[in-house]
Design a protein that fits this description.
Blueprint (H helix, E strand, L loop, with lengths): L3 E5 L7 H12 L4 E6 L12 H13 L5 H17 L7 H13 L3 H20 L2 E2 L7 E2 L7 H12 L5 E2 L4 E4 L4 E3 L5 H11 L4 E6 L20 E3 H9 L10 H6 L4 E5 L8 E4 L16 E14 L9 H11 L13 E7 H4 L3 H12 L3 E14 L9 H11 L6 E4 L5 E7 L3 H18 L1
Helix pairs in contact: 2-3, 2-5, 6-7, 10-12, 13-14
Length: about 450
């Protein structure tokens, strides 16, 4: 029987009621044997996450100040969950030990990790599962880089004879024995590592949305949920800002060929989104659209360069790119014509050096015309099926033309997995809505 590793995010464990839902989900499938919890998150929009309160404690402790106010608020949150669930457990000795450690050696990583540690203890007691401290199995080197092979070996050895366990997310320890956390949202990474180590059949990541959406719901009203997406497609969309999962959570499961299922704790019967390997067989997939998702990002600038006979001037591109390199700039796209070249890059990175960059390009290649255009948004239309579908780009252009949106740039990746277009920032929301209509709504009506 294959096992499932299930990770629950902070909002899924924010209060006693959420704990009950989580326990119901776990108990409804006996394959859900290893559980990775986050720290209690927000219960309502103005609420404060336990992790943030812990960082506050570390900050106060670090400057020798009294941290009892945030610390008492933390205790109240956990004690509230314990009493509402009617549990016969106490975290008092843990609270005492944490406070003493913070006074003696205030460390951000140690403080922040205690949110998951305490929640793991509580959830293990509530489920009747064994508690396995992540500090025993998730191992970092002295520079804070994860040691994946050592970690996998440690997880396997520790879980070998344990049928059901709760392993807190977000932290581990360095080879020197210090507690170390991943970056924010890092419980996703812990879940992925555990799934890899135990060769899970699936890694379920439970959160407060029913999966990835085809487009941003702040732009498109009630967008569809993506049923399945490949790791590569996900990377394209995530780069453009569509985020549900920590970036580093992909690698451990991807390399082991384990799918990730994004699920909603508040709507457990929703199937969520399946993230699958790039060579997955999709032949049985229902209602598949040509595209998988649309995402956009503002804040780009384009350096437009024109020079007669540019294409016959050897080394032209190299000289221009060397200027970017010398100024520590990377670029996103570089479409070119016979006498023109335009380079799109992040405005925030260009800003501090823009005059220098212009002067150096002028000196190096003596262009006929040189300008920087700001206020560009990039929009990615992503989908594995575009490769075998004719007319995709034509449809994107038709959608833009009908909306009278000027397309400033277009770039199709060689993998034909995505088409990137550049538009004015103020046109971005409408561009996304039109593309959604063209590919999702109209395909539904056919
Ligand atoms: N609790 C940590 C955070 O708020 C880690 C996590 O939730 O994954 O970032």
């Amino acid at each position: 029987m294959g096992n499932k590793v299930v990770k629950f995010g902070g909002s899924s464990l924010a209060d006693a009621n959420q704990f009950r839902k989580v326990a119901d989900i776990i108990k409804s499938d006996e394959k859900r044997v290893y559980v990775v919890p986050s720290a209690p998150g927000k219960r309502f929009s103005d609420d404060i996450k336990i992790t943030d309160m812990l960082y506050k404690c570390a900050e106060l402790a670090g400057s020798g100040m009294d941290f009892s106010e945030p610390f008492n608020a933390i205790k109240d949150r956990y004690n509230g969950i314990i009493s509402e669930l009617g549990m016969d457990v106490s975290l008092d000795s843990e609270f005492e030990a944490i406070a003493a450690e913070l006074k003696a050696r205030p460390s951000n990583d140690f403080a922040a990790s205690r949110g998951e540690f305490l929640n793991g203890k509580l959830l293990a007691a509530y489920l009747g599962y064994e508690f396995v401290d992540a500090a025993d199995v998730i191992i970092f080197d002295t520079n804070g880089m994860l040691l994946l092979d050592d970690t996998v070996a440690a997880v396997r050895a520790r879980l070998k004879d344990i049928k059901n366990a709760v392993i807190p997310g977000f932290y581990g320890r360095t080879t020197e024995g210090y507690v170390k956390t991943f970056s924010r949202g890092g419980s996703d990474v812990t879940g992925s590592i555990i799934a890899n180590a135990v060769k899970a059949e699936i890694y379920e990541n439970w959160t407060d949305v029913s999966g990835f959406l085809v487009a941003d719901p702040r732009i498109v009203e009630n967008p569809d949920v993506i049923e399945s997406i490949t790791y590569r497609e996900l990377r394209e969309l995530a780069y453009m800002g569509a985020s549900v999962l920590h970036e580093d959570a992909i690698f451990p499961v991807r390399s082991a060929g384990i799918p990730i299922n994004i699920r909603n704790t508040n709507r457990p019967s929703d199937p969520g989104t399946m993230i699958v390997s790039d060579d997955h067989d999709f032949s049985n997939e229902s209602h598949a659209h040509t595209i998988t998702g649309i995402a956009g990002r503002k804040g780009f600038s384009t350096i437009n360069i024109e020079k007669a006979m540019m294409n016959s001037e050897t080394g032209f591109g190299m000289k221009v790119l060397k200027v970017l390199y010398d100024n520590g700039l990377s670029f996103e796209h570089m479409p070119s014509g016979i006498d023109t070249m335009s380079i799109t890059l992040d405005s925030a990175k260009l800003d501090p050096v823009r005059d220098k960059v212009l002067a150096q390009i002028r000196k190096e290649v003596n262009p006929g015309h040189l300008e920087i255009e700001d206020g560009i948004a990039l929009l990615a239309v992503v989908g594995r099926r575009m490769k075998n579908t004719r007319g995709t780009v034509a449809r994107i252009f038709a959608a833009m033309a009908h909306a009278r949106i000027n397309v400033k740039m277009i770039d199709q990746g060689s993998s034909e997995l995505n088409v990137i277009i550049g538009v004015s920032e103020h046109d971005l929301p409408e561009a996304i809505r039109r593309i959604y209509d063209m590919f999702i709504n109209s395909e539904k009506n056919n």
